[in-house]
Write a structure and sequence with these properties.
Length: 315
């Protein structure tokens, strides 16, 4: 088995270089992996210079430039151009903790039960109620998406089955990618490239074919959380960003989850979740009340898209 590492990036040259440093410290033959960098801007900083410098030194780098924005599209493009049978999606601000991460990944995928895999995120904080094993990586019937993948209170087993994983470290078989027809890039199209919930949707598609996703303690990573590039900040002011979050979350729920849509509508409208707050959380967190109207409009827009229009995935 060999690994294709896919890294979307845009104007974060310093972070990308640090990530590449971690990758090329891996104790594995460079014949056993490739690095595919998808620069969907393309970047106007030193990204290309850094990539070409690395490419001159290491021949296993593929550099793809495109003007189409959207991280979901970048991940799709990277996987389509991948040559090996394990695809590893990471962010340009992800650090691989162990120097044998890639070797471990290959050995774990020898287990045919595993279709997709993520590692435990190393963080200096933990929220106890979100760190219990039964809640890690789970999605509730009301669309609450647990995004805590730290190894806190994760002592019962070396791996646990989960519903989804974050794309800052998400590995999957190329055969699974082809079987589910890849990522749904409509999450980007709907939000001018922000793509919130794109990787969550991808994971649900894996689950829907009866395949399994696991979280393992054997592999750890750090998501450094780099600042968003200026284009993304300009594109997503506070209100527009919240509107896009509501849009894509509503699309994800109505497209993928088997639930009572009326109950979900009132739950989302009145309560919501931490990242997608409803009226009660908007008041509690003292958000601007105008956000509530973005919530209302986004839900009705998604209901229109999913019910009155012939919704099709886009690439």
């Amino acid at each position: 088995m060999k690994i294709s590492i896919i890294i979307p990036t845009f104007n974060r040259a310093t972070d990308l270089e640090e990530t590449l440093l971690h990758i090329y410290k891996q104790k594995i033959s460079r014949d056993n992996f490739e690095v595919i960098i998808v620069d969907n801007g393309p970047s106007s900083d030193n990204t290309e210079k850094i990539v070409l410098t690395y490419k001159e030194k290491y021949r296993n780098i593929v550099y793809i430039k495109t003007s189409k924005p959207g991280v979901t599209y970048a991940r799709e493009l990277g996987s389509v151009n991948a040559n090996f049978n394990i695809h590893l999606q990471i962010d340009d601000d992800t650090s691989l903790v162990q120097e044998d991460t890639l070797s471990l990944l290959i050995s774990l995928f020898e287990n045919k039960e595993i279709s997709a895999l993520t590692g435990s995120e190393k963080v200096d904080w933990a929220i106890p109620e979100r760190s219990k094993v039964q809640g890690i990586g789970r999605i509730t019937n009301y669309g609450i998406v647990n995004t805590n993948f730290s190894d806190a209170k994760f002592e019962e087993a070396s791996k646990i089955e989960i519903d989804h994983a974050r794309s800052c470290f998400l590995a999957y078989r190329s055969s699974v990618f082809k079987k589910i027809n890849g990522f749904d890039c409509y999450y980007d199209d709907l939000t001018s490239g922000m793509g919130f919930r794109g990787e969550t949707d991808f994971c649900i598609k894996i689950k829907n074919i009866g395949a399994k996703i696991f979280l393992t303690k054997k592999i750890s990573y750090v998501h450094r959380g780099a600042m968003r590039p200026k284009r993304v900040i300009a594109r997503n002011d506070k209100f527009k960003r919240m509107y896009y979050v509501y849009l894509t979350h509503s699309l994800f729920v109505l497209k993928n989850l088997k639930l009572n849509k009326l109950k979900w509508f009132f739950f989302q409208l009145l309560i919501g979740t931490r990242k997608v707050p409803g009226a009660a959380l908007i008041i509690k967190k003292r958000h601007n009340p105008l956000i509530f109207f973005f919530l209302l409009f986004s839900i009705f827009r998604i209901l229109f898209i999913t019910k009155l229009l012939a919704y099709k995935e886009t690439k």
